[in-house]
Amino acid sequence: MKKNTKYRYPTTKRETIEGQRHYNINDGQWKLPSVTTILDRTQSAEKREGLRKWREAKGEEEATRIVDTSAARGTAMHKILERYIIEQGYLDLTDNGLQAHHMAKRVIEQGLCNIPEYYGTECTLYYPGLYAGCTDLVCIHKGQEAIVDFKQTNKPKKREWVGDYFLQLAAYAMAHDYIYKTTIPKGVIMMCSKDRFYQEFVVEGAEFKKAKHDFLRRVTEYYEIMREPKVDVKAGDFLEKAEEEKKELEESYRESVRQTNERKNK
């Protein structure tokens, strides 16, 4: 796989602001929320409820173990693939690492084999003033420029389950097009399950255009949420206010009794 230096991607720092991942672009010129932060913050109530029920069914401890194991395996797979692309090589002999090596091998054999040339890996992309993120690969895929993301999964997925992945690809493509004056026509998800089943999802044409519109709606929703006034309620303040209201009610009650007695005595 040959590297093409046509595009120069920025180096950035990741920061956590109010518990959410942000990218520090150009030494503080912008501190932008990540694409995944925006998607997570604007999840539908239905999806949040589904996740809650899943954690409840599994039990909190087991659910946390599954999530943490999957994240570690995904990180290892990404690192193996990145090192393969830049021809450095990487070996992880942990249980998760060995499993990730087998998964990465599937992605290389069935996915990366269709990429003769790439512009960058682990590329930070940003849309000024709106969002930023890091995509796994910007490349030529089957003769066309493409945004590629690698995904691990515990079990194979149906196309209708990966809608947010398409929004990620759309977000990265829009950022790339804006900064580098490109017109990237498609995004590609290269996914492998822990059982080494490879899947590839390509989003392009009208579906890609819709994903861009849908992501921009989520961006709007995110900034509307962030603009909502935040009320810092402290326990002491709440108790003090409650005590004041109690005194006011007691005083009002005593005054009412006094007035009633006065009317009886007339």
Structural class: alpha+beta
- The CATH topology annotation of the largest domain reads as Lambda Exonuclease, Chain A
Radius of gyration: 26 Å
State the separation between the terminal residues, measured CA to CA: 103 Å
CA-based shape: elongated
How many helices in DSSP terms? 7
Round the mean pLDDT to the nearest integer and report it.
87
Please give the share of residues in helix. 40-55%
Walk me through the structure:
The protein is an alpha+beta fold and 266 residues long. The chain has two domains: 2-227, Lambda Exonuclease, Chain A (Alpha-Beta Complex); 234-266. The chain is 51% helix and 24% strand. It has seven helices and nine strands. The protein has helices at residues 35-41, 45-58, 60-85, 95-110, 163-180, 205-227, 235-265, and strands at 2-3, 13-17, 20-25, 30-33, 117-127, 131-141, 144-153, 186-193, 198-204. It has a six-stranded mixed sheet, with helices on both faces. Strands 2-3-4 form a three-stranded antiparallel sheet. It is elongated and about 105 Å long. The model is unreliable at 230-235 (pLDDT under 50).
Question: Top keywords for this entry?
Answer:
three-stranded antiparallel β-sheet; six-stranded mixed β-sheet; 2 domains; 266 residues; elongated; Lambda Exonuclease, Chain A; alpha+beta
Write the layout of secondary structure elements.
Layout: E1 2-3, E2 13-17, E3 20-25, E4 30-33, H1 35-41, H2 45-58, H3 60-85, H4 95-110, E5 117-127, E6 131-141, E7 144-153, H5 163-180, E8 186-193, E9 198-204, H6 205-227, H7 235-265
Parallel strand pairs: 1-5, 7-8
Antiparallel strand pairs: 2-3, 3-4, 5-6, 6-7, 8-9
Helix pairs in contact: 2-3, 3-4, 5-6
